[in-house]
Batch of 2 targets.
Target 1
Amino acid sequence: MHCASCSALITRKLKKTVGVEEANVNLASAKAHVRFDSSMVHEHDLVAAVKAAGYKAEVRNEHGHHGVELDRKRQESEIADYRRKFLIGFALSFPMLVFMVLTFLPNSSLHMMTLPYMGIVSLILATPVQIWLGSGFFRGFWSSLKMGTFSMDSLIAIGTYAAYLYSVYNLTVHVVTEGSVFGDVHDLYFEVAALLITFVLLGKWMEARAKGRTSEAIQKLMSLQAKTARVLRNGQAVDIPIEEVKVGDIVVVRPGEKIPVDGIVMKGLTSVDESMLTGESIPVEKKEGDHIFGATMNGNGSIEFRAEKVGSETALAQIIKFVEEAQGSKAPIQDFADWVSSWFVPAVIVIAIITLIGWLLVGATFTFSLLASVSVLVIACPCALGLATPTAIMVATGKGAEHGILIRGGEPLEAANKIDVIVFDKTGTLTKGKPVVTDVIVLKGVADEVLRIAASLEQGSEHPLAESIVQHAKTKGLSLSSADKFQAIPGHGVKGLLNGTQYYLGNRKLIEQEKILLGEMENRLQQLEDEGKTAMLLADKQSVLGIIAVADTVKETSKEAMEKLQSMGIDVYMITGDNRRTAEAIATKLGIQNVLAEVLPEKKASEVKKLQAQGKRVAMVGDGINDSPALAQANLGIAMGSGTDIAMEAGGIVLVRNDLRDVVMAIQLSRATVSKIMQNLFFALFYNVIGIPIAARLFMHWGIVLRPELAGLAMAFSSVSVVTNSLLLKSFHPQRRNWISDVAPWFMIIGFTAVFFLFARISS
Ligand code: ADP
Ligand code: MG
């Protein structure tokens, strides 16, 4: 594929194929994503459809290591191919370039000497360039013609063939009238055709190289993978290729070695550098029972661990898959670029014809008019437009992954740029989600009995509050019994029978539902709640037996993140099922003004909806488990991957690290990316806007004329500039302003304007 019109053409062809529900062809990654009904159409039919459109395709079943390896090979061969073609083209065109320079020195002896042979030599040199090196453009032209449209290839093919055939015609006329191929033949433009193709190939070569760099992130991730693992087999440690590690294998890792797969530590103590997955540079302590992840780096300890996830299941493989999918996805803004380019090419052909006829009508020579018209065709190729969005998205998603921010493609990236409100889940998102018991108040009965009953009830619950109570009872050495008819009531608490007695444990709502009066206990509750603690009441059928209060510490970095977001003009909200006082107390600590408290789990999504109804674009940040509906309802869902468990479907963005500063970074990155896309689109359009009138020789009066081959060179470099501009996102840094990236487009615009005029001078 050469440009946006190619990908648009293939998309159209695929969509027309019976059984295809959706097709999306990505120019930058050279991948097509197709959803189809397998009972109606086969994969090979899709490949055939692409072939019928004049392009090559293969089914890509391979993911992970193998697939990326294939991509890399394909990319490398593409680069090598363009390089070879350019070099051959250049070698063949060079003598013609010399002839061209000599025409500026008409009285030099070298010119006198070569002049009689210029025509025939040019024909011999230009023909292979036109027919062989330019065959790709012609094929593209032909296949789009069959589909009744024009593509960028059409522009190059028509432009070069016009110059080439016109020259052949003039040479033939010369031969017929003079009876010899030698002599001073007028109006030969073989070099225009040959140099144009050569320059476009140069541009393609540079572009392919630059595009290769946009997907480096995945290759970098791939290279993190260990090649071998040392596993215990019959008590012996043996080195085996990583592919042969099975779940349940005991893997031995020595100090300083790479951890091969995901697993749970069985023996040993160490610290592990997980920065390659999480972006967190501080090593993490690992002891027995802790999870460790493939591709991370072991520190000073020796450990043995049991392999739990291998192959495509590992956290690294999941991240790679995530990024790969994201890079192949399409951004909404891309539709605009596609729409423009779909109209652009036909419009350019019309402008070229008008240019030709217009100049002829005002009395210009045919040669002059033709050259102007060819320049128009060439300069207006919308390649830069097609590359503007996907390259920026590829770089941004790769950059995000480097920092432990997984962005599911262009859509969430664009959404993140436009967010007005961010709603944070309290437990586990703003706080650590590991509450600890702080107070046990006994109102009736024996001390410890309250805790014992509470913990016995909570054994059946998976709520973090329940875990903290059970944990606390265990450390006190209390023996727990199991409850009958246990029931968890979401957003309220739990109930169950112990030795035939009915108990309730939960918040006010739960107790009040049982018609138990709180009386003066309300004061105690409020006191605890004002301290930011979650107070739970334990009651039997008649009265309250005690209060258990737990506190969840806020993450050290949450406050900083909230301040940053607010300073970026974003409103932050806290949402929680906890009671209002507790929530307010914690919100105050974090500097959050907007609190949505006592929200039942299933109502979180409707709270998001309410904010949206006020015309706000809402992002929801949650731990992705019970927050899924809210994450899906929000304009942007940001899921916190607890640890490295990133196999999450809910979020448009997944944060590998459990740190809210990454929300800030994600938004900064998306803002940087969207502004980069805008710069690229603006540049691509600007370039065409000033390029076309110059090419059409409208400014001839001021001596500004652009030769077609130089128009080709300018066109080629416009694509290269756009890709390079996207690559500047690689220097994105959350704490630093990316000056180079900000000013680069201005330099591009100034540079290009200068180049146009410089070329125009050379030409005139
Ligand atoms: P969040 O996830 O925002 O912390 P939940 O909706 O899970 O809130 O819970 C809301 C409230 O319901 C808790 O603050 C607590 O008072 C009560 N609750 C929920 N589950 C339990 C439980 N297993 N034991 C005791 N109280 C509970
Ligand atoms: Mg929760």
Target 2
Amino acid sequence: MRVIFLGPPGAGKGTQAAVLKGRYGLAHISTGDILRENVRSGTALGKTAKKYMDSGGLVPDDVIIAMMRERLQEPDCRSGFILDGFPRTVPQAEALDRLLEGMDITLDGVILFEIPRQLVIDRLTGRRICGSCGEIYNVSFKSTKVPGVCDRCGGELVQRDDDREEVVIRRLEVYEEQTAPLVRYYEEKGRLIRVDAGREGDRVVAAIEKAVGL
Ligand code: AMP
């Protein structure tokens, strides 16, 4: 299975991709995760990306496209992949088309995560992540037994810098301006599959599995 997860930040793309990765052995390629890892380890890419990420804006297309060109060559992609957070602009989508064509690969579908705006704001501003094991919580929807402490490993919960409310609002504006045009792009190619992402996670996963015939 080779699919793109498209939708606003906070729609649950990363969470559902992690479930499907575990279930079907697909590569879960999150450009946001790759960039954050580079920021953490202080690479040149991380230094370039950080200022865009902290403001809620997008990292330039040429940087992202070069990064994905390499990532898609890695062996784990051979058994299928989920692209989470890429492409995010029309030039990125066009570059991806060329990359996949060069690799003789076709996409099975583009899953559009549809979700009300206010729910996204609540999910993102309430999101907390364990700094040790990466488990994701939410102060409103999935809190920990002891506030600020991971139930699974006892690690300390942290908030992503870009989950602060003002940055979340900016990220949603950027989504509407630069990423939402991809809905039409993939609809015209007959690739778009709409999924109601405002439901519980396991129902969203089941809808995706059904849509792509897993
Ligand atoms: P995410 O975790 O997908 O919400 O990504 C976090 C941040 O990383 C975004 O707000 C962007 O600054 C940057 N980013 C992730 N993916 C892309 C992409 N495909 N194009 C440009 N910037 C990206």
